[in-house]
Each structure stands twice: as C-alpha cells, then as structure tokens.
Design goal:
heterodimer; A: 289 residues; alpha/beta; 3-stranded parallel β-sheet; 8 helices; B: 296 residues; mainly alpha
C-alpha cells in the first residue's frame, strides 16, 4: 500500500504544480474597452505600447501591397495606408513599428502583439466573431490570370473556364470565390504563397491563377512576361469584397482607427493612394457566368 | 508471412490435475490484487482528468477558447469536407507504403552484401541513405514537386499528388532501408550457416530463413515509420492537392475559427492510434516469444 500512497502523493503534487504553472494571468487593461468614448492620442490605453503604433503584416509581403518585403519603407499600397492612418492618429513615421504576424496566427485568442494588422484581409461577418475589423480601406474584385499561349486565354465567360486547372492561394477568399462562382470541374490547387502559384503556372501544373485584381495586375506586369489577364468577376453575388484592418477582439482602439480611415476617405488621401499604387481596372473585361 | 508457431503443450493435459488449496488461494489473492490495482488506476486517471478539465474551464479565457476551438456548428460544417480530403491522404499513404517497402528492402539488401564487386552499389546505397535521411521531408517535397516539372522532361508526372508521393517515397525509403538493414543484421549468422548446411540455396536461405526473422525483429520500428509517413502525407499539401490538413486550414482561415484543425487531428488520430496499438501488441508478443525461449 505504501507504494500506492507515494504514487498518489506524487500525482497530487504534479497536478498542483501544473495548476500553479497555469495560474490565470491578470487581465490587461486593453481587454476592457473604454465605453466613455475613445481617447485617440498617442498614449491611449488601448495601445499595445504607449507612444508607438505597432502595425503587423505577414512575411513575405508582396507587391503591390508592399515593396521588396520591407513594410517600413512606406512604398506599396498597404504600407502607405498604414502610415496615413498613423499620421491621422498623431504618430510620426518613426513612431510606427512593424511586426511580422503570420495570417493564421492573427485570429488566435489571447494577447496580440500589434495594434492593427494590415494584410489584405477580407471582412466577413463570420470572421468578425473572432476579431475586430475597421471599416474597409479597399474594395477588391477577383481576377483570372493565365499564360497567353493557354487555351483559356480567350475565354469571355466563367463557363469557358470550367475545365481549367485553377490555382489559388491558401487562406484567401479566392478559393471560395472559385468554388461558388466558377464551379470548376476539377478541385482547385491550393498553394502557400504567390510564388508557388506562379511557379506552378510556369510549370504547366495549373492553367490559371485566381486572386485579387491588384495582385493579378502586379503578376502580369512584373513576374511573368507572357501572362494574360482573362478578366475579373465579382464575388458572392453582388456583395463586394472589402479589405479591413484587423484588430484584437474588443480592442479599445478600433473606433480610433475608424475615425482615421473616415478622415482619409473624406480628404481624398485614400483615393490618391489607391490610384498611386494600384493600377486602374477599367480596361479589364467583366466575366459573367 | 508465417506468424508464430501454434503453441502446443509439450505433454497431453492430465485430466486428474487440480491445483492445490494453496495454489487456488494464491490465484485468488492475485486476482483480487489485480482488481484493486485496476480500480486505483482508473480512479487516479479520472481524478487527474477531472482536475485538468476543471482548471481549463475555470481559466478566464476558457469562453473564447471554447468558441474558437470547440465550435460544434463549425465542426459539423467542416467535417464532410475534411473526410473527403482525408481520402486523398489515405490513398497517398497506401501507395507510398508499398513502394517504400520495396525500395527500402532493396537498399537494405544492397547494404548488407559483402561481395567486393558490388562496392560501387554499396557506396551508392550508403550515399542515398545519408542524403535522403538528412534532407527535411518538406524540403524534399518542394524540390520534387516544383523542380521535377520545371525540368520539362518527357514523361515526368505533372499530377501534384503523384510528385508528393515520389518525394515521400524517396525520403522514407532511406529510413525504412536502415530499419530493415538492422533487422537483417540482427539475425544470427548461425541461422544462415544452418540453412546452407541443410542444402538451401543462397536465395532460399534469404527468403525462408533470414528475411522472416529480420522483419519480425524490426516490426515495431517499421510500423513507427509508417505512422510517421501517414502524418507526413499532410506535407504534400504545399504542392496544391487538397488533403485533410489543407482543407482544415482553408476552412479555419476563412471563418477565423480553429475547430476544423481539431477535426483533421481527430481523423489522423483515428487512423494512427489503432496502428500504434497494433505495433505495441506485436512488440509485446515478440518480447514474450524471445523470453519464452530463454527464461524458463
């Protein structure tokens, strides 16, 4: 019996130790959103680090959203938007700190190490259950890219692309768009990065890439020299796809970011940045089902 | 493959034999002790689980964790898709397993040869094992998946899942080859000599005497490698095919909810746990057989 008792004691100690190790952390003040209206200063209590705006994006960060994987250079649409938002909130350029946040980790529960994440994240009601979204800063359409020697380069409707082998990037709404709108006869191939998609297209493993229009423009212009933009199509039956800034759920800073964004829309800065970094999509044919 | 010989008692059972009073008492005592131990073990396990569950539920973040990881509606929504995708994992695993066994055995046989004329083959096999065991599997999947088609050779497969299977076979054949080589070396040379003395040829000796014992000795590590292979089929996802983990990732990233990952994990576990238990049982049986021959 002695041995049993020792074992029992040992396991009790182990359980106690585990419990002690997992003692609840004190709640951070950021969790409690101030209901007395937002105080949007560079020292707001809702900030991750006072006196500094911490902005996150994934790595690699691709053009045209960012430039040469360096978000801090202010080049590329999303980098420029982030600095514009920071400016409206009263932060200087040197008070903006960039951190890397893998997309799959951005919606994890628990404390976040950023104030907002800017990473071409589409706003959906389902997603809004897990995180806070700002109002949208860009409305994207899906577009289809193929090689000009491909049999699908001349397609004028989505139905003609039914038998194409489509490639999409993981975690994008493009996958859903392809399934709901294009309804291809074959399972779309899913890739980790834009680079992998382009490689598969060059290797002839897929016939076409489906992703948002600005990315398609960039790929056709800089990454591939024999690419053909087949056309664009709206996603999900009329509701436009909108990109928003991602903030931790219940962040006290969401209203501040929204104020900054609406100010940028009002004074035309956002429109200017859009035309500066993202090509106009007027001459891309609209593909109907 | 022949399993263990049927146990036949050395002497016919004696009908008049009955265990003595003392032996029966010993038997009773053993039984009651076993019962008590089982109860204590079960109670302790339940207690531990209860304490851990209570600690999890009592933690301040539990509500959010439950919503993000254990969402019933999300699970029901994702599961059919996951199941469909998991079928691809099973196919890749089964095809790869057969090829790996063949290739691994070839490598092992080459590596245990002694003939001086076969030195270049031996060297090639050794280099193969060193290289393919040393390269991370994911890297190999990338190299084969994006590199082979880029060569533009006639007759290279372009199906991504086929390329993925090729990469897995290259990687795991090196592991399995080493396991089988250990098995071949574990058979005592006297066995081979005895077989030769009985007039069996070189090939017959290998087939009927050496290989059965070799494989039996290394079954547990062999099954280990296959369980690892089963999980590594998820790596092929980087080439594009939609397998279970990828399907879970897509659903999770689309809805910002981690529950689909849990579903995928359950699917993998549902296959690997029976395999693991089976490996354990084989190991116990092999151990019992070994001790039975010496421990009396």
């Amino acid at each position: 019996m002695l041995r049993t008792r020792t074992t029992l004691a040992a396991s009790a100690v182990a359980v106690l130790l585990t419990a002690a190790a997992c003692a609840p952390q004190p709640e951070s003040p950021a969790g409690a959103a101030g209901s007395a209206g937002p105080t949007c200063t560079t020292g707001s209590p809702g900030l991750h680090k006072s006196g500094q705006l911490t902005v996150a994006t994934d790595s690699p960060a691709y053009a045209p959203w960012f430039d040469s994987n360096t978000p801090s250079n202010g080049k590329g649409f999303e980098s420029a938007v982030a600095y514009a938002v920071a400016g409206k909130l009263g932060f200087g350029r040197d008070q903006v700190k960039w951190v890397v946040e893998p997309f799959a980790h951005s919606y994890a529960p628990g404390a976040k190490n950023f104030d907002f994440d800017i990473n071409q994240i589409s706003i959906t009601p389902q997603r809004a259950k897990a995180v806070d979204f700002s109002t949208s800063y860009y409305t994207a359409d899906q577009a289809i890219l193929t090689l000009d020697n491909s049999g699908f380069a001349k397609a004028t409707s989505l139905a003609e692309l039914k038998d194409a082998r489509i490639g999409v990037q993981v975690a994008t709404t493009s996958f859903q768009a392809v399934r709901d709108q294009l309804k291809p006869s074959r399972q779309p191939s899913v890739f980790n990065t834009t680079n992998d998609e382009v490689n598969a297209l060059k290797n002839g493993q897929i016939d076409a890439i489906v992703t948002d229009l600005p990315t398609v423009f960039y790929l056709a212009g800089s990454e591939l020299d024999n690419a053909k933009i087949v056309g664009q199509f709206g996603y999900a039956g009329g509701t436009p796809e909108q990109f928003g800034l991602l903030l931790p759920k219940g962040s006290g800073y969401t209203p501040c970011v929204n104020q900054a964004l609406s100010a940028l829309k009002a004074d035309g800065t956002l429109a200017k940045l859009t035309s500066q970094w993202l090509s106009a999509s007027a001459n891309v044919p609209e593909l109907k089902p | 493959m022949k399993t263990a010989a049927r146990h036949q008692p050395a002497t016919p059972p004696n009908d008049t034999y009955r265990p003595s009073e003392r032996e029966q008492e010993r038997e009773r005592f053993r039984r009651s002790r076993k019962r008590r131990h089982t109860w204590i073990a079960a109670l302790c396990t339940l207690l531990c689980l209860g304490v851990m569950a209570a600690a999890a539920v009592a933690s301040p973040g539990w509500e959010r964790v439950r919503r993000l990881f254990l969402d019933g509606a999300e699970f029901r929504d994702a599961f059919p898709e996951l199941l469909r995708a998991f079928w691809l994992n099973i196919q890749m695993f089964l095809i790869a397993e057969v090829l790996i066994l063949v290739l691994g055995l070839l490598i092992a046989l080459v590596r245990v040869t002694r003939a001086p004329g076969l030195a270049p083959l031996r060297l090639a096999a050794t280099v193969y094992v060193d290289v393919f065991r040393g390269v991370p599997t994911l890297l190999l999947v990338f190299l084969v998946g994006f590199g082979l088609p880029a060569l533009r050779l006639q007759g290279t497969p372009s199906q991504p899942w086929v390329l993925g299977v090729i990469a897995l076979v290259l990687s795991y054949s090196a592991y399995v080859g080493e396991v089988l080589r250990a098995g071949l070396n574990s058979v005592h040379p006297a066995q081979r000599n005895a077989a030769r003395a009985l007039g069996l040829g070189e090939r017959q000796t290998l087939r009927h005497v050496v290989l059965p014992q070799a494989v039996r000795n290394v079954l547990p590590p062999l099954l280990n490698d296959f369980i690892a292979l089963q999980k590594d089929t998820a790596l092929v996802a980087v080439l594009g095919p939609l397998e279970a983990l990828r399907a879970a990732q897509i659903k999770a990233d689309y809805d910002f909810n981690y529950t689909p990952y849990l579903g995928a994990a359950l699917l993998f576990i549902a296959v690997t746990i029976p395999l693991t238990r089976f490996a354990d049982r084989l190991q116990r049986r092999a151990a019992r057989r070994t001790w039975a021959e010496t421990g009396r």
